[in-house]
């Protein structure tokens, strides 16, 4: 059986803007064996073009078409639910571009949805507007449930934390599209043209990557170059199919990762 690969980006391919050793050789092996892959990220700030440029600065050449974000997954979901709809968006170019590309109108006047994504400049005015629109009947969608994000100075409040604020104010829970929702995995599989039976998810987090892969019916590999370690992994009631130190351990085994 030939495997396809879905893999998280931060903590798997790169770590604090530095290439994880062996990743370039691993991706070269995938290409040499004509193995299909997508790089996944819950971060909705950037477009695939932005992320390709970011990876290129570390020495990785990943085409835009091989990058799948929670913003793209959110846009696909909304297009399937209400084609040609409207949304009030809190987010950046990754999210607004994805919604424009499916023909959505971005507005603060009676939108179908309030869509919350990642941004480094959450506005109290925009959050207040979102609360009032949800109270008035707009459906509440969020790209991902991550409560914090990293920065050089320490943790930053992220989509999940701001979503909790809006939920507390309105009494309405958001629908999160990104990992660990298996919906994101299934949309990535469709984009890749692959099936869960022969696709592998590589991630560094038990609570998002491994859980999402498991619930979407994928085999999973946990790498120890990011968030989860062997000790914290044991605290979860589910297990990855395999645990490796880093993605470099898969070099030479891309065709048979469990051999």
From TrEMBL:
Pfam families: Hydrolase_6, Hydrolase_like. Gene3D superfamilies: HAD superfamily/HAD-like. InterPro entries: HAD-like_sf, HAD-SF_hydro_IIA, HAD_sf. PANTHER family: 4-NITROPHENYLPHOSPHATASE-RELATED (PTHR19288), HALOACID DEHALOGENASE-LIKE HYDROLASE DOMAIN-CONTAINING PROTEIN 2 (PTHR19288:SF46). Belongs to the HAD-like hydrolase superfamily. This is NagD protein.
């Amino acid at each position: 059986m030939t495997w396809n690969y879905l893999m998280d980006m931060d903590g798997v391919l790169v770590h604090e803007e530095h290439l994880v050793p062996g990743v370039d050789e691993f991706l070269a092996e995938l290409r040499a064996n004509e193995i299909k892959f997508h790089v996944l990220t819950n971060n909705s700030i950037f477009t695939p073009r932005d992320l390709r440029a970011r990876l290129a600065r570390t020495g990785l050449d990943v085409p835009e078409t091989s990058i799948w974000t929670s913003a793209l997954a959110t846009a696909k979901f909304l297009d399937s639910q209400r084609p040609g709809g409207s949304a009030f968006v809190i987010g950046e170019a990754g999210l607004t571009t994805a919604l424009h590309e499916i023909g959505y109108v971005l507005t603060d006047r009676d939108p179908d949805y309030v869509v919350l994504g990642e941004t480094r400049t959450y506005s109290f005015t925009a959050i207040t507007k979102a609360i009032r629109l949800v109270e008035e009947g707009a459906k509440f969608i969020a790209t991902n449930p991550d409560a914090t994000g990293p920065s050089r100075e320490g943790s930053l409040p992220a989509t999940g934390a701001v979503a909790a604020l809006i939920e507390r104010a309105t009494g309405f829970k958001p629908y999160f599209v990104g990992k660990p929702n298996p919906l994101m995995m299934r949309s990535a599989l469709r984009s890749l043209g692959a099936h869960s039976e022969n696709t592998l998810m590589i991630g560094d987090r038990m609570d998002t990557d491994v859980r999402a892969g498991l619930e979407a019916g994928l085999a999973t590999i946990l790498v120890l170059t990011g968030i989860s370690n062997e000790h914290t992994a044991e605290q979860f009631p589910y297990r990855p199919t395999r645990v490796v130190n880093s993605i470099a351990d898969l070099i030479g085994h891309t065709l048979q990762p469990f051999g």
